[in-house]
Structures are given as structure tokens and as C-alpha cells.
Design brief:
About 35% of the residues lie in helices and about 25% in strands. It has about 325 residues and is α/β, with parallel strands linked by helices. Strands 4, 5, 8, 9, 10, 11, 12, 13 and 14 form a nine-stranded mixed β-sheet that branches. It has a three-stranded mixed β-sheet with strand order 1-2-3, covered by helices on one side. It has a two-stranded antiparallel sheet with strand order 6-7. It binds adenosine-5'-diphosphate. Adenosine-5'-diphosphate binds next to α4, β12, β14 and α11.
Length: about 325
Amino acid sequence: MDETTLTARLPQPVAARVQSLKWTDGRVTAILDGSGLGAAERDALETAVKDVLGSAPDVAEVRVAIMADKPVRSGPVIVAVGSGKGGVGKSTLTANLAVALARSGRRVGLVDADVYGPSQPTLLDTEGQRPQAENDKLIPIDSRFGVKMLSMGHLVEPGKALAWRGPMASGAFGQLVDAHWGDTEVLLLDLPPGTGDVQITMLQKHKPAGAVIVSTPQDLALIDAQRAAELFGKGGVPIIGLVENMSGYVCPHCGEASDPFGRGGVEDAAAEAGLPFLGRIPLSLVVREASDAGTPPAAGDGEGADAFHAIAAKLGQWLDQRAGPGSA
Ligand code: ADP
């Protein structure tokens, strides 16, 4: 008995659901696509296949497997932003990348997992807001920059998170990631600085699709950034690229350029490690003041905006390549 003849016996709507059909020594094994069907329809499908094929010549037994629904969407693509040490501008970069991606038309979410100093509510001007919950899951807060967000800073009083131990921190982190993100396309994670247990647990539990590492150009920060790269590498998280922050300073009074922390170190380190370099953000008083005031530079077009937009464009390219041709 051959498989085509058997399939031809099935009524068209049933045949259309056949993913594979095998006949071996009187036994038929049929695998069917059950997407969109309820339990009763699945039963009916199984019965139809068994009845029709069971009465075919040379068939002694019919086995049917109906595959579960194919997931339509598997939730947002998670991109982690990490640094080897604190104070290098990881949170500033994450907030501005989120705002820039949203401005370019993407549906963006941000999770502030920086237990030691959740600064996203300040950066995105949602300080003091509390997220609602529905069915035991948090509803992200809509910032006025088109970015949905959840921060440890929205859940605890400022300063309290500092005392948290690892398991508590990663438990709360899970709630932030596993929230009602709806049709959010990309979720940026502002990780705590460093490469300790908290970061490892977070990466293992909610495996990001990729990671961006930010560093200042000094040697010491770079060594830590390399450690962060190793941490992601070990966790099987691909590194999207490195960003150099606080790179070069142009005096607002005389226009003279200087390099308080050096310049180019991150690009060299990326080249050495064979990792992409995504760009540099200048050290700028405007960036610091705007950030403190809850108006991320990337939301405007002034000084500092271009650098963030250029890096966000590269991240956007990475997201598109990852999604592949034909995917929305
Ligand atoms: P991290 O998240 O790595 O600890 P933050 O993003 O909180 O670092 O930045 C630390 C401080 O540096 C903040 O006051 C921030 O405004 C400032 N800062 C970050 N990037 C820049 C920059 N490119 N120019 C000027 N100040 C910056």
C-alpha cells in the first residue's frame, strides 16, 4: 500500500491536515496538524482518519498523532544591555535605545532589572508610578516616550532594593519579564552591572536573544566589559556588539575636543575579540542633564541624539536579520 493512495482516500479537509503518513507492514502512522482546532474537532479528525484508513485494504492498524497549535508569536525578542561595572552609562544607553527604537516605529518594552540602582523611572519620567496587575501578572507602565516599561524602582521604595539578596532579586526580575507585554516586539533588559550570581540567574531564566555591552574607553572598564562578554558567551547569549560611552569631550565653551577617559579603546577591544562595534556616545553635559530631567536625548534631535539613533539603527538591523525575510 502506498502513502499517496491512502491520503487520496481521505476527504479533502482531512487530507489537508496530513503532515506525514507512513504505511509499514499493515500499520499506518499519520501525523496531523491540529492548529486552531478545539478538543471535539481533534477527536472528530482522529476518528475520521481511523475510520477511513482502517477500512482500506492491507491496513491492520491506524495510529494518529495530532500536533499541538503552532505558537503564533513567542513573545518579545529580549535584548540584554550589560556592563562589567556600574556608572559607565548602561541605564542611559538602554533608555535612549528604547526611545530611539520606538521613534523608528517599533513596539518597545524595557525592563529595569538593575536591583542596585533602578534608574529607569527617572530616565523615562515614570517616577512614583505603580504598575497595575491582572491575573497575577504586572501590566507595564506606558512612558510618555512610547516605551512600555517595568522597573524594580516601580515596585519598591527608592533605596530599599539595595538590600536584596540574589533569590529575591531574581524572583522580582521574573515578574517584570513575565508581565503583560502584549504585542511588544523587542524587550530591552537593563541588567545590573557586573558578572555575579544575580546576572547569571537572570540570563539562565530568561535567555536573551542577544546582548549589547557598554563600556567607557579606560582599560579598567574594558577589562570588566570583557568579563561581561565572557559571561554572555558562557550563557550562550550572542553578543550583538559593544558600545563606547563617554567617548571624547567637546568643551561647550571653547569647542576644544579632549578625551578625559581616552577614546577608541572599546572599538579596539571589540576588534580584538572579533565582536561588532556599534558606535560611540560622546561625554556630554547635555546628555547628563537631559537624563536627570527625565527627557532622554534620543527623544529630541539635539546634541547626543544622533549617536543614540545611529546605535539603535544598528540594533534594528540586527533585529530584522534575526527575524529573517518574510516575518513581520
Ligand atoms: P550605569 O547604568 O552604567 O550605572 P548610568 O546610565 O546611570 O550608568 O550613568 C551614570 C551617570 O553618568 C549618570 O549621571 C548619567 O547621566 C551620566 N552619563 C551617562 N552617559 C553619559 C554621557 N554620554 N555623557 C554625560 N553623562 C553621561
